[in-house]
Amino acid sequence: MRKAVALLLGASVLIPLALASHAPQAGARPQQEPAGGDQGGGEVVRGTLRYETETGEDAFAEGVDITVESADGEEIDTVTSDEDGAWEVPLPGPGRYTVTIDPDTLPEGVSLQDEDRTTLTFEMSAGRARAVLFALTAGFGGREVATGFERFVRLSVQGIRFGLVLGMAAIGLSLIFGTTGLVNFAHGELVTYGAILAFIFNVTIGWPMLVAAPIAIALATLTGSAVDRGFWRPLRNRGTGLIAMMVISIGVGLLVRYIFLFQFTGFPRGYREFTEQRSWDIGPLRIVPRDFWTIVISLVVLLGVALFIQRNRMGKAMRAVSDNRDLAESSGIDVDRVINFVWAAGAGLAAFGGILHGLSQEVTWQMGFQLLLLMFAGVVLGGLGSAYGALVGSLVVGVAVEVSTLWIPSEFKTVVALSILVAILLVRPQGILGQPERVG
Amino acid sequence: MDWGTILDNSISQMLRPLTAVFALAAIGLNVHFGYTGLLNFGQVAFMAVGGYGVAISVLEFGVPLWVGVLIGIGAAVALAALLGVPTLRLRADYLAIVTIAAGEIVRLTIMAPTFRDTTGGSDGLSGYNDDYTELNPFNRGNYGIGFLKFNAPATWNIVVGWTLVLLAVLLVWLLMRSPWGRVLKAIREDEDAVRALGKNVFAYKMQSLILGGVIGAFGGMYLVIQQGSVIPGNFTPAQTFYAYVALILGGTARIWGPVVGSMILWALIVFTEEVLSELVANGYISSSLMSTNQVSQVRLMLVGLGLVLLMIFRPQGIFGDRNELMLDER
Q: Per residue, what are the HEC states of A268-286?
């Protein structure tokens, strides 16, 4: 057992992260390069005021007043953006600062996307440079560029993208529960793991994304298998209870998450490719090519998974073990092998989801944990233990979460997901596709 | 390396308010997890609604602090009902899923710019604890023996905190030797058997969730009141797991387990943190490996690792009784 723990720590976490230890220096460059020598090694905050004109071209806001204050309200400096929309303020040291933009000095017709967010707060660590960006839009009164219908269509498509990615990540969660009964609270870390691996290959080493992503997914698959073989299987074999295992999984999640924070740092960082893209306009729909391809790729992958579960022998065995473990075992299915396969495939899919999510958002150390909460909502909604349930539920959650921003502020996205979760537990606890069972 | 100071700080940490806060949170978890077998992964949500309940009601409604405390309790009861009603009839994992989500959502809601005027957003709130500081009976000066000396406000904090802990311990002790407590333990062992005896398992679980939640909320209220200011960062999801480690370290389903566990945990945390900081500062650990502000991240890794190792190798903790922990069913 001791060996198993050492193996978990050693094999799955430390080796890949030893690679990552170079990530903060090399990978940080695009957004937070080490402050230049002329600042005397001090900290710098800078930003570029960029917006998209109505014709879809990039433009920069010149002559905008930006004020930087320290946390106790002391003004550091007020600067004006240059013709490239760039501004820069050297800071006296690390700590918490606020940046305030003066909306009255913005060019004609340009406004903040969120007019209430004129002040942004950020944390400065020693010896770094940080970028602070204000979201600007050009249009009539800013917010109302799109009609209600257009926004609905766009958000729905965003929701489908998000739901597919969520579903991909959640299949493993649901199948691991189905085959072993364990709710794996460290599943989100598999998502982050894949995203960070791809980041290392793509940004730190510099391989193209199309090479980096498959290798990251393959590595994550191997890791998933190793984690099951070296850690969870011995625990199952010694008869550790499910509740104890859930507590263990949450401990593993905490440990791994803070290893990520330690190695990857707390700054969100994007991949090297596919970042700046011109969006396509198709009727009422506006979509970035990256997001379009994310949807296509996820659909293909998920279709493959469905075919596999339906047709392949291993897929059938997976369903059999989920349905009734003892019966499956007595009819000659090697349950341990099935579970190991589920772990491997689940980890690979989670990593895939993490990479796709990292492409459209950014890679952060706790992206997986944040997604996990939404995955739970999706998985419970669809029915714990079923792969299709995870998919259907995640799609519903993804669309609901995105479309809800039409009426409520976007910071309450997760609240929407939890409300769905609570409502479904009250009405139909087994989920949309789950088997009803007597509970309580 | 100044071992004397490090040891002094580690030992005095055992008495400091933060230790009492997590003792309270862990006592609440003990009621949930230790006695009833409820898997609450969002104890921090109870702490947060308690703490912010006090701060907001004093600042917004202008009520005296004790009314704020009552509101904090009410908020914790309401949260327990909200989380319990949909999940307590179901398998244990559903409560775990809903509570872990609730823990994060309460924090995100508090941080939301929409409610900035009420909750202070990420800047937090302050200036609500005048009633508490006025009550301080200690005059200026230092109190204590040897190196365990605290100034007057700190002494007042310690006295209040540990009085709360003792009251909570007494309450749990009395309840758990009552028939009510025996039903809880029976639910933990075999829910169906209890149901067969005609007990309303759902109601008992709900009462347990509320009781443990309110004790946790007292932890949050005490944290917020003695601190004099509160930010959402006080209530990160990781806080729940400090409480879990404290509980399991000391001994699950033991009256003094969470209290002793919290003291040992915080002494260990301060000890490792100060040793690591010294090692980094004096160059024994090269700065390319780790900087001083990464020390607190190492602390959280150790909390996670500790939780894993304890659950695998010594689930009964230091003083626990393995027979009390037959959570292996279901």
A: CECCCCCCCCCCEEECCEE
Asked if the structure places residue A31 within a domain, the reply is no
CB atoms within 10 A of CB B66: 11
| Contact across the interface for B96 and A183, Cβ inside 8 Å | yes
Look at residue B142 and give its three-state secondary structure: strand
Q: Is A1 on the interface with B (CB under 8 A)?
A: yes
Q: Which of B39, B105, B327 sits opposite A418 (nearest CB)?
A: B105
A53 touches chain B (CB under 8 A): no
* CA neighbor of B311 nearest in space, from A240, A180, A185: A240
Contact yes or no for A426 and B85 at CB 8 A = yes
d(CA A293, CA A434): 31
- Contact yes or no for B308 and A426 at CB 8 A: no
What CATH number does the domain containing A395 carry?
1.10.3470
* Residue A336 domain-assigned (yes or no): yes
CA distance A128 to chain B (A): 14
Whether B96 sits inside 8 A of A252 (CB atoms) is: no
> Within an 8 Å CB–CB cutoff, is residue A258 touching chain B?
yes
Q: How many domains does chain A have?
A: 2
Tell me whether residue A19 is in a domain.
no
Q: How many domains does chain B have?
A: 1
Please give the model's pTM, rounded to 2 decimal places: 0.79
Q: What is the residue whose two structure tokens read 């009902």?
A: B81
Q: How far is A266 from chain B (nearest CA, A)?
A: 11
ipTM above 0.95, yes or no: no
Residue ending a domain, among A85, A110, A139, is: A139
Q: DSSP assignment of A83-145, as one string?
A: TTSEEEEEESSSEEEEEEE-GGGSPTTEEESSTT--EEEEEE-TT-EEE----EEESTTSGGG
Rounded to a whole number, what is the distance in Å from the CA of B327 to chain A's nearest CA?
7
Q: What is the pLDDT along chain A (440 residues), one digit of tens a residue?
A: 445 444 444 444 444 444 444 434 333 333 333 333 333 356 788 888 877 766 566 777 888 888 888 776 677 787 888 877 888 888 877 777 888 887 777 877 777 776 666 777 777 777 677 778 887 776 544 444 567 788 888 889 989 999 999 999 999 899 999 899 899 999 999 999 999 999 999 999 989 999 999 999 999 999 999 999 999 999 999 888 888 898 899 999 999 999 999 988 888 888 887 766 777 777 777 788 888 899 999 999 999 999 999 999 999 999 899 888 889 999 999 999 999 999 999 999 999 999 999 998 889 998 999 899 899 989 988 888 788 888 999 999 999 999 988 888 878 888 888 888 888 888 888 887 776 665 44
Q: How many helices (H) and strands (E) are present in chain A, helices listed first?
A: 15, 13
